Amino acid sequence: MTKSDFDELLATWEGNYKKGLLTFWLLLILHEREAYAFEMSTLITKLSGETIIADDNSIYRALNRFEEIGIVSSTWRESDIGPKRRYYNLTELGLRL
User: Which of 1, 13, 41, 90 lies in disulfide reach of 94, CB 3.0 to 4.6 Å?
Assistant: First the structure.
């Protein structure tokens, strides 16, 4: 195995590991309460002791995937400090999961 192959394999494993952790943190947050995506990003960073930093795109992709399989639902709500926000919560299936 060349160094390049090794580095590519390691990067793939790291990406899969981070996706798994993101799933864990998102579901943990939503198990406690509903939240909007930007808020989840901040909470993940704080709760993980700043060891996980999730970008908004990764969070939205994960939440959309969760919504497609029926473990998360979302609703748009007015915000006191700006535009409407999309709040996410676990469905009954998500709670059982």
Answer: 90
Q: Does the global pTM surpass 0.90?
A: no
Between CA 47 and CA 26 the distance in angstroms is 11
Q: Three-class SS of residue 46?
A: helix
Q: Which of 57, 68, 58, 66 is nearest to 95 (CA)?
A: 66
Q: What residues does 90 pair with on adjacent strands?
A: 72
Give the integer Cα–Cα distance in Å for 25 and 3: 33
Q: Cα–Cα distances in Å, from 90 out to 30, 44, 83?
A: 6, 17, 23
A 10 A CB-CB count for 95 gives 12
b (16+ CB within 10 A) / e for 45-84: eeeeeeebebeeebbeebbeebeeeebbbbeeeeeeeeee
